[in-house]
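Reading is simple: each integer encodes one residue's backbone shape. The lines below illustrate:
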Amino acid sequence: MELIRYKNVEIRQDTQIVLSDVNLTVQSGELVYLLGRVGSGKSTFMKTLYAEVPVHSGEATFLDYDLTAIRRRQIPYLRRKIGIVFQDFQLLNDRSVEDNLLFVLRATGWKDKKVMHNHIQDVLGQVGMSDKAYKMPYHLSGGEQQRIAIARALLNTPDIILADEPTGNLDQDTAQDIMTLLNSISKAGMTIIMSTHNRLWPELFPGRKLLFADGKVSESE
């Protein structure tokens, strides 16, 4: 099943062209790496997917939404279909792990406290964090915080996970543990698009590679 189709797409920030003539499709179940230097447009491309940055021209379809014509009121519904993992975790430090996850569930319409609690335990189990529900984020290591961030991304059973440099703030061993987790989630059938400048990951965890360079996107061997 096709999740993304970009045809002759141009992406701008303010008046500056970031990417032009973008042509790509992504199918359900793919692990796709976005490779390129810092500033090559990887994160900006990702932001077009969740409608933070508009598509300037061309044809852009994502999860059956036309990104060139999406209305503001549609954006929250699009984003509920997406799990996002950031480099800097973006956990709320004034509340526990469970309350971080409860915040997301409540914001997306969940009501039943027992159902929410059980669901959070299930998702924490998926990322190996079952015993961390009552911890505060600042009591966790960087790798543990990123596992919680991945749990948050999985909460609403998304169609796709967007991971923007998910290992960028971690040491090499911890980063590889996170990649092993993301790879296992991918192998279970989840579509993952991940930006990274770490060329080791596609070698250790094979997937499709898209190279961002000179304002263009191309398939990479």
Observations:
- The longest strand covers residues 2-13.
- The helical segments are 42-49, 75-79, 97-107, 113-126, 142-154, 172-187, 200-204.
- The radius of gyration is 17 Å.
- Residues 72 and 106 are 21 Å apart (CA to CA).
